[in-house]
TrEMBL record:
It comes from the Eukaryota. This is Nuclease HARBI1. It comes from Linum trigynum. Pfam families: Plant_tran.
Length: 425
């Protein structure tokens, strides 16, 4: 074979190799494109026409038309509130957050109505239903309803928190003190206790911190409730491994007293004057001047009578917990959220709605009660600064708050007071 024949043969071999290489690359590219296309087809979201406009018409016929299918009594049972309160909340939330208003999307179609959004969020609170379960009724996708639910809770807190999570004002204190005196406990403004909410989706790394005597992860709510189950104080988020004393140590419930910003109250029990209101508490709480506990082992008829009345009126906060969990089933069952912030917003929004319902429905005769009781409530906040005299006053107020001597003296006076009222019955 000549040199020219050998070179032509090599060129043909190279051309054949290049054709084979290009063919191989094209096949690989085609297969990759087909694979990507199939993956896009399997992961794409399918649009579901939920007929949300027809759903809104049905919802309006059921509850919101002038002559609805379901009357106000059924509305109250399913929404946990009267229609007038629902419409008040809906109007406020639409003005506060325009995303709840009725709008049109980019195709000109009507969006979800405010009634649909509030119905979905309130049904989740009232029945503890998962978002996917409510899709069949309110015609909202799971992710959409969860977004609406989170916004609803945040808006309730931002709109109404300052009003319905407030501490008692001087006007509130006058009503509470008059009612407490009529029940045999002058100076009492409520009862305090803790409630555990099970956390089903607690991260495994936190489970030990949040697991206490209930042997499963829980989060604690500390609350103070008055005679009508209005919750005046709510402190939520403490891990369930703590007891009531630990929660009290972290709670801001008595900060206004030690800071000098609490309204000054003067009242008499059994001929002795006192200037600090108090809460009824169970036996685990410390013997402070602002807490009145029962006798675990009464040694006389007087102590037995006091224990009977104290334990009966201390149930106000237990009743508040029971109503809260019955009205809003989401806080009765295990919590499904993954973070404490979301759980805090859910709990606080339930408490705010609970207080709003009490205000809306309660027919109270407290304003008609005789106002001849000797109570003086003066709002005189005292600012705190770095002056030595102010710090000394701060420490003095803290010592008075934790005074066991005042605690026992007040309890003994209440024992005598109740015996004088009911001992001969």
């Amino acid at each position: 074979m000549s040199i020219s024949d050998s070179s032509s043969y090599g060129e043909e071999e190279n051309e054949e190799y290049e054709r084979f290489h290009h063919l191989r690359l094209s096949l690989i590219g085609r297969r990759l494109a087909e694979g990507a296309s199939s993956r896009r087809q399997t992961t794409s979201r399918r649009h579901i026409d939920r007929e949300r406009v027809e759903c809104n018409r049905r919802l309006m016929r059921d509850y919101f038309d002038p002559n609805p299918v379901y009357n106000a009594r059924i509305f109250r049972r399913r929404y946990r509130m009267q229609p007038r309160l629902f419409h008040r909340i809906m109007g406020d939330i639409v003005r506060f957050d325009p995303s709840f208003a009725l709008r049109r999307d980019s195709f000109g179609q009507l969006s979800l109505s405010p009634e649909q959004k509030l119905t979905g969020a309130m049904r989740m609170l009232a029945y503890g239903s998962p978002a996917d379960q409510l899709d069949e009724y309110v015609r909202m996708g799971e992710s959409t309803l969860m977004e609406v639910f989170r916004k609803f809770c945040n808006n309730i807190i931002n709109m109404y928190g300052a009003t319905y999570l407030r501490a008692p004002t001087p006007a509130d204190l006058r009503i509470l003190l008059r009612k407490a005196s009529s029940r045999g406990f002058p100076g009492m403004i409520g009862s305090i206790d803790c409630m555990h909410w099970e956390w089903r989706n607690c991260p495994s790394g936190w489970a030990g911190q949040y697991t206490g005597h209930m042997h499963r992860p829980t989060i604690i709510l500390e609350a103070m409730a008055s005679y009508n189950t209005w919750i005046w104080h709510a402190f939520f988020g403490t891990p369930g491994s703590n007891n009531d004393i630990n929660v009290l140590g972290m709670s801001p419930v008595f900060d206004c007293i030690v800071n000098g910003s609490a309204p000054h109250v003067r009242f008499e029990v059994n001929g002795h004057a006192y200037d600090q209101c108090y809460y009824l508490a169970d036996g685990i709480y410390p013997s402070w001047s602002t807490l009145v506990k029962t006798f675990s082992n009464p040694r006389s008829n007087k102590e037995a009578l006091f224990a009977q009345h104290q334990e009966a009126h201390r149930k106000d906060v237990e009743r508040a917990f029971g109503i809260l969990q019955t009205r809003w089933a989401i806080v009765r069952g295990p919590a499904r959220a993954w973070d404490v912030v979301t759980l805090n917003n859910i709990m606080l929004s339930c408490i705010i709605l609970h207080n709003m319902i009490i205000e809306d429905e309660q027919v109270d005769s407290d304003d008609e009660m005789d106002d001849d009781l000797d109570y003086e409530v003066l709002a005189q906040p005292e600012p705190i600064n770095r002056h030595q005299s102010t710090l000394i006053d701060y420490l003095a107020r803290n010592n008075r708050l934790r005074s066991s001597t005042t605690h026992h003296a007040l309890r003994n006076d209440l024992v005598e007071h109740l015996w004088n009222l009911h001992g001969n019955i």
